[in-house]
Design a protein that fits this description.
Blueprint lengths: L2 H9 L3 H23 L2 H18 L9 H20 L16 H16 L2 H12 L4 H8 L3 H19 L15
Helix pairs in contact: 1-2, 2-3, 2-4, 3-4, 4-7, 6-7, 6-8, 7-8
Length: 181
């Protein structure tokens, strides 16, 4: 069934339509929650809390085109609530094996997660929403309540900080060599 039809039905109070929408977006919601908290249990709690809060408020959604934006915004608020309750660093050792591939790939992924968690909050939000959720800049701007050009600035500065944190100026799989004559 068309997603817009499901959203319209969910807004009118159809719980089955709402459940279908959650199933459609569950992987994306989980991945985003995991990027914020760094462990499976908290990420699942965040997704569950998001589903509950969204179910209670879905009738207030004004424009069905922005369902995913609205849902992601709720998820981010839930993630911040969990992080405030924990008030601790994310233990990298507890991050589950995200890739079944080589150890090198897993290490690179862990380095990336560690680096993303070191970014300033607004840079981290922009990077996660744009690069990991594949949302357009306009959607990221709506979720973060900032102008589109501000999102572009956050992305640019966030990428520069990630390059510094990950130890490369122009990472392309090879080490960069400075040439002196």
């Amino acid at each position: 069934m068309n997603e817009m039809k499901l959203v319209k039905r969910a807004i009118k109070g159809n719980k089955n339509a709402f459940e279908e929408l959650l199933v459609i977006h569950s992987d994306q919601l989980y991945r985003t929650a995991f990027l914020y908290v760094g462990n499976r249990e908290d990420a699942l709690d965040i997704v569950q809390e998001t589903a509950y809060k969204a179910l209670l408020a879905v009738g207030q959604l004004k424009n069905e085109r922005f369902f995913l934006t609205w849902l992601t915004k709720i998820l981010i608020h839930c993630a911040f609530d969990v992080m405030k309750k924990k008030k601790k660093e994310i233990p990298i050792e507890k991050i589950i094996d995200l890739s079944s591939g080589k150890i090198e790939k897993r290490d690179e992924h862990l380095d990336l997660v560690r680096a993303i968690n070191q970014l300033k909050e607004h840079y981290r939000n922009a990077v996660i929403l744009f690069y990991f959720q594949d949302l357009p800049i306009s959607e990221v701007a709506k979720i973060m309540n900032v102008p589109e050009n501000t999102v572009k600035t956050y992305l640019h500065r966030g990428k520069n900080q990630l390059k510094k944190l990950l130890g490369g100026v122009a990472y392309n799989g090879e080490e960069t060599i400075s040439s002196r004559v």
